[in-house]
Amino acid sequence: MIRQAVLLVGGRGTRVWPLTDTVPKGLLPVAGVPFIELQFRLLAEVGVEEVILAIGTSHESAWRAYAEGMTEPIVHLAVEHTRLDTAGPLVAVRDHLDDRFLVLNGDVVLEGNLSQFVENAPDLPAVLSLVAVDDTSAYGVVVTDDNGNVERFIEKPPPGTSPTSSVNAGMYLVSRSVFDGYPEGALSFEQTVFPSLVEQGLLGGVTIDGVWLDIGTPPLYLQTHRDVAAGKSRLVEMEPSHLHVGADVAGQLEGRWNYVAPGAVIERGASVSESIVLAGATIRPGSVVQDSIVGWHAIVDGARLSDSTVVGAEAVIGRDCELSAGLRVAPGSELSPGSVTFAAPS
Questions:
Q1: Going by fewer Cβ within 10 Å, which terminus of the chain is more open, N or C?
Q2: What is the DSSP letter of 149?
């Protein structure tokens, strides 16, 4: 089994801003559970007892507060004071690494059989977890031989042109020796470390099945909740009766799922459909929220939100505003009534 893991959570989370203005992406809730805890639950299945979080300075205080409250697993912080890319954080802490350990990207979880991945990993310095996808055009494809050795990478091949459907699932089994010879500083797994290992025949790949939970963009964050609500996750549940425990819901909840956090208020005459309403937010009468995310303590006052709109914390969206097409509202902003719309008033 594997005792130690490193989680790469140092990114600023710009693709899910404004939610990450004050909250690091790894602590965004999925059905009320901080996303990183899903990774901890997965790692516990292979005996991981110690986790090193490679963090940046932008959310250092939030990560420190979170780590101080953890008792299991043991959590250590490794702070990047300059951007180190994806592999640089490992070089910086290599003196504290076991001979063999796991590395996980911070915004995805593949709920596969992690024990099977570790047991089936070829005896190579680094092994990638791979997952098959229907559309390879959004990913870098990983081509392996019959022995599980990675032969090459193909970046985002058009549909129907790729020799395989296997892509990097963001989870690696790595030996400390991989970082021998690299100086401290910025270093990329994808651009430098993995291609070098491929040239030497030292990189493996193991395909595993499982639900892929991804919170890297607002549509993916919504899709992860959709999958959890449908019972596809084994790491977290969101039963219909739990959608608004601790929330004040007098309005309509529509669609197949919603996540309304404790402390949120949906007033009578408001409608919420397949959306995330975070703690302290208020949805007032006349509001329609569809396929959107409303941040902490924000107010939607008779506006219409749709199509992956994200409202930042403590923002106020005035009556008759219409927000769509992935629009993002900065934290603390106030949109006056009718100030943003896609149609002229009748």
A1: C
A2: B
DSSP state of 308: S
pLDDT at 346: 62
Cβ atoms of 275 and 260 within 8 Å: the answer is: no
Over its C-alpha atoms, the chain yields an Rg (Å, rounded) of 22
CATH number of the domain at 35, please. Answer: 3.90.550.10
Least confident of 180-184, 209-213, 226-230: 209-213
Does 198 share its domain with 51?
yes
For residue 135, what pLDDT band results from cuts at 50, 70 and 90? confident
Range of the domain at 306: 243-335
Q: Kindly state the DSSP code that residue 241 receives in the 8-state scheme.
A: G
Tell me, yes or no, if the pTM score tops 0.70.
yes
Torsion angle, CA of 33/39/40/42, rounded to 10 degrees?
Answer: 110
Q: Is residue 345 part of a domain?
A: no
Q: Per the structure block, which two tokens stand in for 231?
A: 């019972």
CA dihedral 299, 305, 307, 311 (to 10 degrees): -20
User: How many domains, the chain?
Assistant: 2
Do 225 and 302 sit in the same domain of this protein? no
Whether 159 and 263 map to the same domain: the answer is no
pLDDT score of 6 more than 90: yes
Sign of CA dihedral 158, 160, 163, 169: positive
Give the contacts of 262 (CB within 8 A, at least 6 positions apart).
32, 245, 246, 247, 279
What is the average per-residue pLDDT within 27-37?
93
**Domain final position from 229, 261, 290:** 229
Note whether 195 and 306 are same-domain residues: no
- The percentage of residues in the chain with a pLDDT greater than 90, rounded to a whole number, is 61
Picking from 125, 124, 123, the residue whose alpha carbon sits closest to that of residue 177 is 125
Instruction: Report d(CA 65, CA 313) in Å as an integer.
Output: 20
